[in-house]
Design goal:
The structure is a single chain. By secondary structure, the protein is α/β, with parallel strands linked by helices. Among the domains are: about 80 residues, 2-Layer Sandwich (Gyrase A, domain 2), CATH 3.30.1360; about 90 residues, no CATH class; about 170 residues, Isoleucyl-tRNA Synthetase, Domain 1, CATH 1.10.730.10. It has a four-stranded parallel sheet, sandwiched between helices. The chain has a three-stranded antiparallel sheet with strand order 1-3-2. The protein has a three-stranded antiparallel sheet with strand order 6-7-8. Helix 18 packs antiparallel against helix 21. The protein is globular, with a radius of gyration of 28 Å. The mean pLDDT is about 95. Arginine (ARG) binds next to loops.
Length: about 550
C-alpha cells in the first residue's frame, strides 16, 4: 500500500482540505529523522485558503483525522506528523508479499505497450569496450524496469557489423590472416589484423585504396567478400555471446547496421519528398539551423550513406515493426548530438512518434581517472575482466566459506554481479572508476554484500524450517521499522527508477535494505524468542524476496548460499 497516498486521501476526506489528493500528496514530506514520524504534512500552503495560522490548522487536523493504520498524529508547530502503526503496516506487508511473491512492486502503468531498447551494440571485429559494457548492463536493467512497470521490453542489439573497416579487414586477412586462429580468438586476431593494416598503410598508401575496393566489392555483394564478412561476423558474435552469458543478458534481436543496407534509399527518398534534403559542400544534408544544431549528414557526394542515415532507417523500421510506445537508445554521452539530430530530423519529417525516442546517455568508465580504453596497446578485454572477477571471488569464498558446496557456480554469479552492481550503483551520467577492490569488497557497497545479505536470510529461513502463513502478527521490534518502511516503499522506488531511467535508485534501495537488515540482526535474536519468532521470520522472508527482486531488476543473480 502507498501510505503517502493513503495519508493524502485521509487528509482530503476527513480533513476536508481544499486541495485535490495529488496536490496534497505532493506536499507531504518524509522527515529525515525517524523520530519525527513517517510522514509530515506542512500546513503553510493552507494558511491562506483557510485564513488561519499553520499551527492552528495542524492542531485541528490532528483532532479530526484517524485511520486504523495510523498509530498517532502529532501537531508540531506548522507540521502535522504522522506515525504509522508498525504492527498493522508490517502485517499488511507480510500478507502482500506472501500473496504476490516476486511480483511484489509490479504495476500495470505501461499497459503492455512495447518499449524498444537499443543496448550494447558493440562493433564487430573490435573488442567489446567498457562503454559497451555500460550500455549492456544499464540497458538490461532499464529493460527489466520496463517490464516491472507493465511495459513489454524488446532488447535490440544494434551491432556495428558494417562499414569501411570490413574492406580493410578483408584485405588484411587475405594478406596475413589465418582462418584457424580467427576461429580460436576472433576478436584478438581481427583486431591484430586491423592494427597491422593501419601500420602497414602508413608506408604503403595503396593499401587504403585496396581496402576501399574490397568494401565496394562487399557492398556490391561479391560472394567471396560476403563470405569473409559473414565469417568475421559470426565468429565475433560467438565471442560476444560468451560475454553475454557471463552477464546473464539476452536479446530479442541482433539486427545490426548491415540489416539496414537495403533500407536507406527509402529514407533518402522520404527526406527528398518532404523537401528537407539540401546540397551542402557536395553532400546531402538536413539543415537544423532552427534547432541550433549542425546539419545532419545523410549522403556523401560519392553516394555513401552515414551513421545517421542508418539510424533513421532503423527508427522507421522499429516503429513499423514493433509499434513501440517508447524507443530508448542506451548509448554513451559522446553521441548526444547524434541522437538529438536524429530526433530533430524525424520531427521535421513530421513523425510525431519521434517524441517517444529517448537517448539514455551515460558517462565513461575510468581507470586511475583516465578513460578505460580498449584501443591499441592498452587492450583490456572485457571477458578477461569478468573472468578475473570470478577468480577473485573464488579466492574470497575459499577464505570465507571453504565448505560451500558449489563454489564455482556461486563465483560465476557473484563475480560478474560485482562488476554489474559497481556500474549501476552510480547515477548513469557519472563517470565510474573501475576497481576490483571496490567491487568485490563483501562489506562495502557492493553486489557481493547484497548477495551475501540475501544468502544469510535464506540460511536463517532454512534453519528455522520456515513456511509463510497468512495468520501471522505484525512485527513490533524497533529495528524492524526501517525495514518495513523500505519494503513498503519498494513499489514507489520501482516507479521512480523507471520514470527517470535510473537503475541506481534500485541499487541504493537494496543497499539501504541490506544495511537495515544487518542492524536488525545485530539487535534482535530472531530464533531465541518463540513468542516473536514467527513475525520476525516473516520479516526476513519479506526482506529476502524484496532483495532478490531488486537484484534481479539490476541483472544480478541471488545465490541461495554463499
Ligand atoms: N556501435 C555503436 C558504437 O559503438 C553504437 C550504436 C548505438 N546504437 C545506435 N542505434 N546508434 O559507437
Amino acid at each position: 500500500m502507498d501510505h503517502k497516498l493513503l495519508f493524502a486521501k485521509v487528509l482530503h476526506e476527513q480533513g476536508e482540505l481544499p486541495f485535490d489528493i495529488q496536490t496534497i500528496k505532493q506536499l507531504i514530506e518524509t522527515p529525515k529523522r525517524i523520530e519525527m514520524g513517517d510522514f509530515a504534512f506542512p500546513c503553510f500552503a493552507l494558511a491562506k485558503h483557510l485564513r488561519k495560522s499553520p499551527a492552528i490548522i495542524a492542531q485541528e487536523l490532528q483532532a479530526k483525522i484517524t485511520d486504523p493504520i495510523f498509530d498517532h498524529l502529532e501537531a508540531v508547530g506548522p507540521y502535522l506528523n504522522l506515525f504509522l502503526n508498525q504492527e498493522k503496516v508490517s502485517q499488511h506487508i507480510f500478507k502482500q508479499i506472501m500473496e504476490q511473491g516476486s511480483d511484489y512492486g509490479r504495476n500495470q502503468n505501461g499497459k503492455g505497450g512495447t518499449v524498444t531498447i537499443d543496448l550494447s551494440a558493440p562493433n564487430i571485429a573490435k573488442p567489446f569496450s567498457m562503454g559497451h559494457l555500460r550500455s549492456t548492463v544499464i540497458g538490461n536493467a532499464i529493460a527489466n524496469l520496463a517490464d516491472k512497470n507493465g511495459y513489454q521490453p524488446f532488447r535490440i542489439n544494434y551491432i556495428g557489423d558494417w562499414g569501411t573497416q570490413f574492406g580493410k579487414l578483408i584485405v588484411a586477412y587475405r594478406k596475413w590472416g589465418n582462418a584457424e586462429s580467427i576461429q580460436q580468438n576472433p576478436i584478438t586476431e581481427l583486431l591484430k589484423l586491423y592494427i597491422r593494416f593501419h601500420e602497414e598503410a602508413e608506408n604503403n598508401p595503396r593499401l587504403e585504396e585496396e581496402g576501399r575496393k574490397a568494401f565496394k566489392a562487399l557492398e556490391d555483394g561479391e560472394p567471396e567478400a560476403i563470405q569473409l564478412w559473414k565469417q568475421f561476423r559470426d565468429e565475433s558474435l560467438k565471442e560476444f555471446s560468451r560475454i553475454y552469458d557471463l552477464l546473464g543478458v539476452h536479446f530479442d534481436s541482433f539486427q545490426g547496421e548491415s540489416f539496414y543496407n537495403d533500407k536507406m534509399d527509402e529514407v533518402v527518398e522520404i527526406l527528398q519528398e518532404k523537401g528537407l534534403l539540401v546540397e551542402s559542400q557536395q553532400a546531402q544534408v538536413v539543415k537544423l539551423d532552427e534547432e541550433e544544431m549542425p546539419p545532419c549528414l545523410i549522403r556523401k557526394s560519392d553516394g555513401a550513406t552515414l551513421y545517421a542515415t542508418r539510424d533513421l532507417a532503423s527508427a522507421l523500421y522499429r516503429k513499423r515493426t514493433y509499434h513501440f510506445v517508447r524507443s530508448l537508445y542506451v548509448v554513451g554521452n559522446e553521441q548526444s548530438l547524434h541522437f538529438k539530430q536524429l530526433k530533430a530530423v524525424l520531427k521535421k519529417a513530421a513523425y510525431a512518434w519521434a517524441d517517444e525516442m529517448e537517448h539514455i546517455s551515460f558517462g565513461m568508465m575510468l581507470k586511475n581517472g583516465k578513460k578505460m580504453s580498449t584501443r591499441k596497446g592498452r587492450i583490456i578485454l572485457l571477458e578477461e575482466v569478468l573472468q578475473e572477477a570470478i577468480e577473485r571471488t573464488e579466492t574470497i569464498i575459499n577464505e570465507k566459506n571453504p565448505n560451500l558446496s558449489d563454489k564455482a557456480q556461486v563465483a560465476k554469479q557473484v563475480g560478474p554481479g560485482a562488476v554489474i552492481f559497481h556500474d549501476l550503483k552510480h547515477h548513469r551520467t557519472n563517470d565510474v572508476e573501475f576497481s576490483f577492490e571496490h567491487m568485490l569488497n563483501f562489506d562495502g557497497e557492493t553486489g557481493p554484500y547484497l548477495q551475501y545479505a540475501y544468502a544469510r536470510c535464506k540460511s536463517l529461513l532454512r534453519k528455522a524450517n520456515f513456511t509463510p502463513s497468512s495468520q501471522v502478527n505484525g512485527v513490533t521490534d524497533e529495528q524492524a521499522w526501517p525495514i518495513v518502511r523500505l519494503i513498503s516503499d519498494f513499489p514507489n522506488v520501482i516507479r521512480t527508477a523507471w520514470n527517470n531511467y535510473d537503475p541506481s535508485k534500485i541499487a541504493r534501495f537494496a543497499l539501504d535494505l541490506a544495511r537495515s537488515l544487518n542492524q536488525f540482526y545485530a539487535h534482535v535474536h530472531i530464533l531465541s524468542d518463540p513468542d516473536h519468532q514467527q513475525e520476525r521470520l516473516h520479516l526476513i522472508y519479506s526482506t529476502a524476496i524484496t532483495l532478490k527482486e531488486s537484484l534481479r531488476l539490476l541483472g544480478l543473480k541471488a545465490p541461495e548460499e554463499m
